[in-house]
Amino acid sequence: MSDSKEKSYNKIINRIIPKISRRVMLSASVAFIIPSIALAVEKSTRNKSVSKTVHKNSAKSVTKSPAILGKAKRALPVVILDPGHGGKDPGAVGYSGTYEKHVAYATAVELSRQLMRTGKYNVKLTRNSDKFVPLDGRVDFAQVNKANLFVSIHADALNNHSIKGASVYTLSNHASDAQSAALASVENNADKYGGPDVHVASPAVQKILASLVKLETKRESVAIAQNVVNSFKPRLGLLPNPRRYAAFVVLKSVNIPSVLVEMGFMSNRNDEAALRRAGYRSLVASSMCQAIDRYFAIGGSVTHLAG
Ligand SMILES: [Zn+2]
């Protein structure tokens, strides 16, 4: 989409999204009000019958108010962590032979532990062991679980062993630079391990709503990506221009804010050595945990407007 077209789309969204929000709030209010009215009617009817009962039985029995058993819990935001590669797909092979799939998984497990400890999120991993999951299977998993946020975790390799540092990607059909395009093409190649049965997901959502949701999702994705970069900056080494974009298949959910975090390069000796250390992975995870906290604290996501 051209810049001017996108700007005019954004203007439309700014006008329409508040309406959608109002609509959502209105539906929520109606849902709240109707049970309240029902409860009030039920209570008044019950009180009438209670007073009759009390009158009838006079001093024989004392009627107690029903006990308040509890209140409904608010659903926690669902965060899907996606450790890259797995099983027959090792991902990048590091400077001294470390597999990317192991580093990605270990970091995802640590991040999951830290997020769960906050008690604020429902966290799920796209794989819970060293197994192969096709790219569209990862996207489908996020959809089935009605994710509010999708975070894919990687540490790839380049032919140039001197390049190091973390970077954070969001989806775009046009890559921010040649290096990002090359990375996306390597990542998207993971499906070659899946054989011919792997199908391409085809989101069949209504066209207009889908495009509105898609643009809002893009904004949210950029917001979480920027939060991750801000958290990494004072603690970890970053690539120059660490906020990048490219056409990663795993980021293609229309309605779920999605980012792909490259924690560093396995092809760089220092990055690989750092990512092999549990202490360093814990630092990466705590930075991401902080970014996710900040993201949800300022409004989180608008996922699943499309239903
Ligand atoms: Zn990877």
From TrEMBL:
Occurrences of domain MurNAc-LAA (ranges): 139-293
UniProt keyword annotation of Glycoprotein present: no
Recite the UniProt keywords alphabetically.
Hydrolase
Per the UniProt entry, what are the Gene Ontology biological process annotations, in alphabetical order? peptidoglycan catabolic process
- InterPro entries recorded: MurNAc-LAA_cat, N-acetylmuramoyl_amidase_3
Q: Which superkingdom?
A: Bacteria
If you read the UniProt record, what top EC class would you report for this enzyme, in one word? hydrolase
- Keyword Oxidoreductase attributed: no
EC number of the protein: 3.5.1.28
GO molecular function terms attached to this record: N-acetylmuramoyl-L-alanine amidase activity
Task: Tell me the protein's name.
Answer: N-acetylmuramoyl-L-alanine amidase
What organism does this protein naturally occur in? Commensalibacter papalotli (ex Servin-Garciduenas et al. 2014)
